[in-house]
Amino acid sequence: MAKGVNKVFLLGNVGKDPEIRSTASGMTVANFTLATADRGKDAQGNWVDKPEWHNLVCFDKLAETAKNYVKKGSSLFVEGKITNRSWEDKESGQKRYRTEIIVNDFTFVGSKAGGEGGGSYSKPSSTAASAPAAAHDYPEQGITDDDIPF
Predict the structure, then answer these.
(1) What is the pLDDT of residues 11-63, one digit of tens each?
(2) Which of 92, 103, 104, 145 could form a disulfide with 111 if both were Cys (CB 3.0 to 4.6 A apart)?
């Protein structure tokens, strides 16, 4: 079989603050949701946004960065891969499935939710993550981040 490609790019808003846990070996794991929107017309011809929710998982340094900076409402651009996992429910004994995005990198977009200003964070292959950069305003043109509609 030929080599395949499993690459995901998402741009959306965080649905809840990350849930942080540690594995038995001490690895940090962050789980949170990201909402993307697909725009279409309803039966009356009005434009409506249909949200799609994605389950995101970050590990190690990226999870630490998510813990410190990602908040509900944060706008993120995410790069990762799709994975499916299954397990047996302890209570019902039924097989359960979950589709998740394993995050390799994320970038804050905008500055409305949580004060982030465009910092980019990657898996441990990069240097240690630093705090997000300050928001970019353009006072000489009278334009601020609050003027942007998204």
Answers:
(1) 999 999 999 999 999 999 999 999 999 888 999 999 999 899 999 999 999 99
(2) 145
What is 8-147's CATH number, 3.40.120.10, 3.60.150.10, 2.40.50.140, 3.30.70.1150?
A: 2.40.50.140
CA end-to-end distance (rounded Å), the chain? 43
Nearest to 56, CA basis, from 87, 89, 79, 73: 79
Q: Structure pTM?
A: 0.69
The position carrying tokens 């609050």 is: 146
Please report, for residues 6, 41, 42, 56, the alpha-carbon distance to residue 103 in angstroms, rounded to integers and kept in the order given: 12, 31, 33, 7
